[in-house]
Write a structure and sequence with these properties.
heterodimer; A: mainly alpha; 4 strands; B: seven-stranded antiparallel β-sheet; 38% strand
Chain lengths: 491, 226
């Protein structure tokens, strides 16, 4: 990272960057024994931490885990993608019985195992695209005769494998962006390993796991495109990762923005003239006009979708765009809720685990919040007073990260729309909807904080940040979670 | 072998040892052994209801005073939840040669690893004691005053008012439990997940990775500065 500040690296020619398209370098881009050692180290770390969380959290204790697992188990049992209405009452009973034994529900709640419709274990997840669940179904077929808790563990283990791959992708991202900085290359994936909520989710049965992996891989592909221009292996990587994310969860649709940005910048590798930016803005406005129209209603203007967008929404997006735009246009109602949405987003991102029922000590909320504010100030300083001397592709990579973070955060915040007509919504989007931009967030956090540190201490700033996050994580794994579930007595 | 590896192995052994080494921890007695509160004859039984922590409960100490000391006696304990119709949790027997005067008996059973189900039970336990021996065998059970809210003593279907037996519960604990509750983590789980050292070893490995990463970063940052 110090090189971002100190060492000016111009765009390298192909020979310098050591790019070759041999299969081995395409797969991992590893060039030295040190790289392999780092890979082994990070993979081991992620795997061990994932395994610890896998057994530490009692079964069914993550967001909608019973129904996420049910979806995968249905695919494994019936060798096909089930519709939202498909039921396997025996499976529901087995899951409900296990969830009951592991105290998923509060005292006094006992599932009705013998009801004709089967016990209620949550809302069906079969509304999601099936990719993640189909992947989970492969090993689940092999262990279908095992107790349900063991099947859940196998499914969780698949998530842990994706977690490990995500950490490795984050490391390759860092190695691409700062090739001369082995310290920064280690710090970024370590920071990622030390976000407890993220690690917790990544060891759960949840389709967000695959979205997070796909998003990190896509960002890796994008940064390689920015560095080298349009090359088919990087294009393939970014495109396949994006498709994977889209086939996993529709909220991943916002990843299209950084992807397209990277493609455009990979094609136009020269400094873009100011008038081109204006032209781009004009194109965006035209696209907006093609998608949305303005209509006067009851003395005020409201936004409504054009027909094609409405059709796309009905068939795939299911965002209820028309109602969404109407609600969005109602500024007077929406404005006060944005503060609450931001608070929920921050809290559930950093300070909650499980079904958001495990609370991290508030001290860490102040600590992380303070770091984020400082990083924001640092980024503003970088932007207006202390610009970095970077190669064009490096600048663009950072902008791409910023854009990814911005659109993901806005998308999560704006999911509160459409607002219910008569009451204030009780559900505001949780932090897990933005975990797929954790990598950009950590980069910008590190970059912003570094801007506030005197030059002499800058080599230590990232390790100190990692140290703070390590204390944070250790506190959660070795105190908060055991205290919640196991002290003084189990559950 | 490098010093670091030796250190890692030593730590591993300590953690493993602390996770398998068990010791006995005695809980507070239900009532003090102040006086005889009931007499138990051969082939009779007495029931004590009580509320206590059952996690890794492995037995009870009981103060008795045999009134006849000519042949061996056997005391059998049955532990179950107070709600009727639920199966007996544990059974323990102790045969001993009675001597005139106060004696302390230890009734041990396999530790209770599965927590009681709070949804189907009130948490109240029932302990039944039976004496086996010659027809003239009799022992006095020592005890003291007891708040009925904490438990009640029954004999021949009638409550013995406001007294309780001097029962002292005994628990199995692991050395590591006060630091990292591995027994609780393994409680009620099957297969390798029911083996407490698994949690200890995984936690140790993760902790080791954290520490080793810190050392790597520390060295890296100093190299970068120099």
């Amino acid at each position: 990272m110090a090189s971002i500040v100190d060492q000016r690296r111009k765009t390298k020619d192909e020979g310098d960057s050591g790019i070759s398209f041999r299969l081995s370098s395409f797969v991992v881009g590893l060039s030295s024994a040190t790289d392999w050692r780092t890979l082994g180290w990070l993979a081991g770390f992620a795997l061990l931490q994932g395994l610890l969380l896998l057994v530490l959290m009692p079964p069914w204790q993550h967001y909608d885990e019973p129904t996420h697992f049910e979806y995968a188990a249905l695919i494994a049992r019936y060798h096909g993608v089930p519709g939202p209405q498909m039921q396997d009452i025996e499976l529901k009973r087995t899951i409900a019985d296990s969830a009951y034994r592991y105290r998923l529900w509060g005292a006094g709640h006992q599932p009705d195992l013998f009801s004709a419709a089967g016990p209620f274990i949550g809302y069906s997840q079969a509304v999601h695209p099936p990719l993640y669940y189909a992947l989970l179904a492969l090993p689940l077929r092999l262990v279908s005769g095992f107790p349900i808790e063991w099947q859940l563990l196998v499914a969780r283990f698949c998530s842990v494998l994706f977690y490990t791959l995500t950490i490795l992708a984050a490391w390759r991202f860092a190695a691409t962006l700062v090739p001369d900085e082995p310290l920064a290359q280690m710090c970024i994936p370590l920071l990622m390993l030390c976000v407890p909520g993220y690690s917790d989710l990544m060891s759960a049965v949840n389709n967000d796991v695959l979205v997070n992996f796909a998003a990190t891989s896509m960002l890796l592909g994008c940064v390689l495109l920015l560095r080298d221009g349009i090359r088919w292996p990087w294009l393939l990587l970014a495109s396949l990762a994006l498709i994977c994310a889209l086939l996993t969860k529709r909220t991943a649709v916002v990843l299209v923005v950084p992807y397209l940005l990277s493609i455009v910048w990979a094609v136009y590798r020269e400094q873009v003239a100011r008038r081109a930016w204006w032209a781009g803005l004009l194109v965006l406005l035209v696209l907006g006009a093609i998608a949305v129209r303005l209509e006067a209603r009851n003395g005020s203007f409201v936004l409504l979708p054009h027909g094609w967008l409405q059709a796309l929404d009905t068939s795939y997006l299911r965002l209820n765009i028309a109602a969404w735009l109407l609600s969005f246009s109602d500024w007077q109602r929406a404005l006060p809720l944005y503060g609450s949405a931001a608070e929920v987003l921050f809290t559930s991102f950093w300070l909650r685990l499980g079904w958001s029922h495990i609370q991290v000590p508030l001290f860490w909320g102040w600590c992380i919040g303070g770091l984020l504010v400082l990083a924001g100030i640092g980024l503003l300083l970088r932007l207006f007073f202390r610009p970095l001397e970077l190669a064009l592709w490096e600048q663009r990579a950072l902008w791409m990260l910023g854009v990814a973070l911005l659109v993901a955060t806005l998308s999560a915040m704006l999911r509160m729309h459409p607002l219910p007509a008569t009451y204030t919504p009780s559900f505001l989007t949780g932090g897990r909807y933005t975990f797929f931009v954790l990598l950009p967030l950590l980069w910008l956090l590190a970059l912003g904080l570094q801007a506030l540190v005197p030059q002499r201490w800058q080599p230590h700033s990232l390790p100190v940040l990692v140290g703070i996050f390590m204390l944070f994580t250790l506190n959660i794994w070795f105190w908060t979670v055991p205290a919640f579930y196991y002290w003084p007595n189990p559950l | 072998m490098s010093r670091r590896l030796l250190l890692a192995l030593a730590g591993l052994l300590i953690v493993f040892g602390a996770s398998i080494w068990t010791y006995e921890q005695q809980g507070p007695p239900l009532a003090d052994p102040e006086r005889p509160v009931a007499t138990l004859s051969a082939n009779q039984s007495i029931r004590q209801q009580l509320a206590l922590d059952t996690f890794y409960l492995q037995g009870f100490m009981l103060a008795v005073d045999p009134l006849v000391a000519d042949s061996p006696l056997t005391l059998t304990l049955r532990l179950q939840v107070a709600e009727s119709g639920l199966p007996v949790l544990r059974v323990a027997s102790q045969a001993w040669q009675p001597q005139i005067g106060e004696q302390e008996l230890s009734l041990r059973f396999e530790p209770l690893r599965q927590p009681l189900d709070p949804f189907t039970t009130t948490g109240q336990l029932e302990l039944q004691l039976e004496l086996a021996g010659p027809a003239n065998a009799r022992v006095e059970l020592l005890g003291g005053s007891l708040d009925p809210a904490r438990g009640e003593l029954y004999q021949n279907g009638e409550t013995l008012a406001a007294v309780g037996l001097a029962l002292r519960p005994s628990y199995q604990r692991r050395l590591l439990d006060p630091i990292w509750p591995v027994s609780a983590m393994a409680a009620g789980r099957s297969g390798i997940l029911g083996w407490p050292p698994l949690y200890a070893l995984l936690a140790y490995a993760v902790l080791w990775m954290f520490c080793a990463s810190c050392i790597r970063l520390w060295r890296g940052s100093h190299e970068a500065q120099s």
